[in-house]
Amino acid sequence: MDISLHQLLQQFPQQVVNGLVQGSIYALVALGYTMVYGIMGLINFAHGEVVMIGTLVAITVTGLLAAAGMPVGIAGLCGLVISILSCMAIGWSLERVAYRPLRGSPRLTPLITAIGMSIVLQNLAMILWGRNYMTFPPLLPKVNFEFAGAYFTLVQVVIVLLSALMMSGLVLLVYRTKLGMAMRATAQNPEVASLMGVNINRVISAAFVIGSALAAVAGVMVGSYYEVAHYQMGFVLGLKAFTAAVLGGIGNLVGAMVGGILLGLIEALGAGYIGYFTGDFLGSHYQDIFAFAVLIVVLMFKPSGLFGEKTGDRA
Amino acid sequence: MQAKLSAVALSIAAAFALSACGPKEEAPPPVAAPAAPAAKPEVVVKLGHVAPMTGPQAHLGKDNESGAVLAVEELNAQGLEIGGAKVKFQLVSEDDQADPKQGTIVAQKLVDEKVNGVVGHLNSGTTIPASKLYADAGLPQVSPSATNPKYTQQGFKTAFRVMANDVQQGKVLGEFAAKQGVKTVAIIDDRTAYGQGLADEFRKAAEGLGLKVVANEYTTDKATDFKAILTKIKSTKADLVFYGGMDAQGGPMVKQMKELGIKAKFLGGDGVCTPEFMKLGGPAADGQFCSLPGVPLEQLAKGPEFKTKFNTRFGYDIQLYAPNAYDAVMVIADAMKRADSVEPAKYLPEVGKTNLEGVTGKIEFDEFGDLKSGAISLYQYKGGTLSYVETLGGAPAPEAAPAPAEPAAAPAAPAAPAEAKK
């Protein structure tokens, strides 16, 4: 295989676009992990499944409305809204049913429950939506752009912009509102916060509901980007987003965003260039290994992640 | 691999979680095997069926299972008598999640359950490791769809398949690419035994015919994003992208090729030759090519009839290997009939001597357990349907013409290669 500098440079802008879009999705999902972890110290492994349910609900609603004669754009919007609402409901009930009764129990118990909930949700979705792959109706017109040799579509632009918007909204919420202050207080010390009049239950519920709403948006994005949905789609996505959250420093909002985008870029550039730089000794199947190697190196030098604060061990 | 590992870990963890959540520590109820209903004057013959019933390939697993169910129901309706007793076939369906580790676990389960024969597995990656367990137990195994050559080359007397293998398929695909005037190819595979095996055979064939392989890229059987590797392929300006893998990845892959402005043609094997591929690929699938072992159902004597039967019974369309799964059951039943025994040890020798006019064509095995007539057909996706292009390689399977009935009166001598129709 001929390696030419031209070839290397030629694909660079495209790989950056690929990574950026993928990374925005990771970031949005990672926020859900990091928010819950920041407040409760719980890794909500069912979060990826909430994303999946968001996508599937949106497909069903959009499909039904579009079949009833509504224009696809408006049907899609309704799909998005209903998917956000259902995910919020799922997030709230998850916390209520699965995690709240276990609050105060050893750390491992809620973790295993989370894994269990993830399997329950997956199988529920399999029963409801079946095993087949579903196609997501194209919500946005197929407009293609070309810039500096990179091709991208309207959907991709919307994904990056919408993610940025949601993330800044969340940061504003956490750092500029009363609820946000209560969240930060609960994160620092739940007991003291409750002594100061913070309703901890409500704060934790809010974190789950907001995280799930973001998950629904991410789900609709993933759906309209790949135009494919399946009851298992949440698993790998959740795993990647969790990795992104750890990379950025789990518990830290900015960390989750940076971690997500970084992971997306590392994956795209890794898959694109690893073969060139190793003389095809390592191929693109080392994409994930490459990403995890970066994670390990980061954790070696900064065990709490890129933006992670040092937190005391909280049980 | 990591994902798979954690999936297993997850299921174990879930088992824990579920039992921990229960109100009391009661004895966990046995998960499976609602033991066969108590004795009637008939013999129950258990046939194991294994395919991924959950996970990204669950739709194909269900398809296989439906094919096998149809066969079992028909056999039971016939009221066969074997060894003087009326037999009732019962399908024991297991889920291997397309995971090699899970594949051996359920294989052991079937062996322990003393099934009389096994139809499966669906994937080469699960079929190969499981075949050792069946061989050790002396249990005949007929895979409807495992195409990796290695499966039948391990020297197991119990391993059979009712589908042409990847050596045959890869070769035909390579020839076809050369015939299309392709000069440079990029090859992607999903790192499964099937995808990698097919891609390797295609690579060999293509290089042998003077084509230049300009990129070797890899993905997984769970991926949805291929933009990074496709971007790299774009920079090599390949004429053709060959994909060794399944429809769930292939569909989105052609779509993303189009989005990236890649003009290269797409070619794939049987794993992408499905309605699902076209659904997922949308307009981008149009005009691309794929291959299927065997001869198109429409051209086979019993093909159209099977299609109707399948649709009326289940209410959905055949995805891919359902006819092969049906035939696999029939091969086992047929061998039992000839041996006049349902004992694996007694009817096993008869499986090798099969001479059956199946739905998928003539079924005769060579000394390895591979099909003697390994014909491969090529198809093009056109406007949402698969349109037949040509059949290459292998001895010809009998064409639709005379349609002989049950008694195996071998129709039409297997003469000229079926370079049929075009």
List keywords for this structure.
heterodimer, A: mainly alpha, ABC transporter involved in vitamin B12 uptake, BtuC, two-stranded antiparallel ribbon, two-stranded antiparallel sheet, 12 helices, 4 strands, B: alpha/beta, 7-stranded mixed β-sheet, 6-stranded mixed β-sheet, elongated, disordered N terminus, disordered C terminus
Structure description:
- The complex is a heterodimer of chains A (315) and B (422).
- Chain A is mainly alpha-helical.
- Chain A contains twelve helices and four strands; from the N terminus they run αααααβββααααβααα.
- Chain A has helices spanning 5-10, 12-40, 47-67, 72-99, 108-129, 154-176, 178-188, 190-195, 200-226, 233-248, 253-277, 287-301, and strands at 134-135, 144-147, 150-153, 228-229.
- Chain A has a two-stranded antiparallel sheet with strand order 1-4.
- In chain A, helix 3 runs antiparallel to helix 4 and helix 4 (72-99) crosses helix 9.
- The radius of gyration of chain A is 20 Å and the shape is globular.
- Chain B is of the alpha/beta class and 422 residues long.
- Chain B is built from twelve helices and 15 strands.
- In chain B, strand 12 (355-358) and strand 13 form a beta hairpin.
- In chain B, helix 3 packs parallel to helix 4, helix 5 crosses helix 6 (193-208) and helix 11 crosses helix 12.
- Chain B is elongated.
- Chain B starts with a helix and ends in a 30-residue tail after the last strand.
- At the A-B interface, helix 2, helix 5, helix 10 and helix 11 of A face helix 1, helix 2, strand 8, helix 7 and helix 8 of B.
